[in-house]
Write a structure and sequence with these properties.
It is found in: Cytoplasm. It is built from 7 helices and 5 strands. It is of the alpha/beta class. Bound molecules: adenosine-5'-diphosphate, shikimate-3-phosphate and magnesium ion (MG).
Length: 172
Amino acid sequence: MFFVGFMGAGKTSVARRLARTCKVASVDMDTYIERREGKKVKEIFAAVGEEGFRAVETEVLRELGAAADPMLVSCGGGVVVTPANHEVFRECGFVVYLEVTADEAAGRISDTSTRPLFQNLEAARARCAERLPLYAAVADATVNTAGKSVPAIAREVQRILEKEGILCPQRR
Ligand SMILES: Nc1ncnc2c1ncn2[C@@H]1O[C@H](COP(=O)(O)OP(=O)(O)O)[C@@H](O)[C@H]1O
Ligand SMILES: O=C(O)C1=C[C@@H](OP(=O)(O)O)[C@@H](O)[C@H](O)C1
Ligand SMILES: [Mg+2]
């Protein structure tokens, strides 16, 4: 399954938390891309621009989508801007959309220097609004994250995935 949503929605944190509590594998696409390319996301943007980064992102999404083992994949926030990626989502699994406003995300992200596309709040608001319909289009389930902690969001997602038969019910 895949987590999508704007930067700061908590995709990386919630996937990691859920992987730990439910003992399943998780992969963060940005971390995977950084290892594969031997560069930080910021450096990839500086070297080949957003377009170059998106090309690598699509290759990686396809690889992860085709993987035999079930896992939790936290995508980068811009994964939905590439139309080809919507096909992967349609064919390869369940998509959970973590909703957040740009304003709330700005309060969560302490260091925006690691996120080349979150440099200024005005621009982030506009980018977020532009992407909302794209997140909604790929989502199989939507979780609003406003004012909730990472463990609380992870529990909410866990219930959804258990109901869908994607995760085995855990003893609580
Ligand atoms: N629900 C939340 N409440 C408060 N802080 C959060 C929440 N989710 C994530 N964060 C913090 O926000 C920052 C971005 O989270 P991250 O998981 O990297 O988001 P994403 O992968 O969606 O960009 C991190 O510093 C993280 O600790
Ligand atoms: O929204 C975006 O375009 C991006 C989001 C980032 O991931 P997070 O959403 O995990 O911050 C990262 O992939 C890159 O900086 C581009
Ligand atoms: Mg992330």
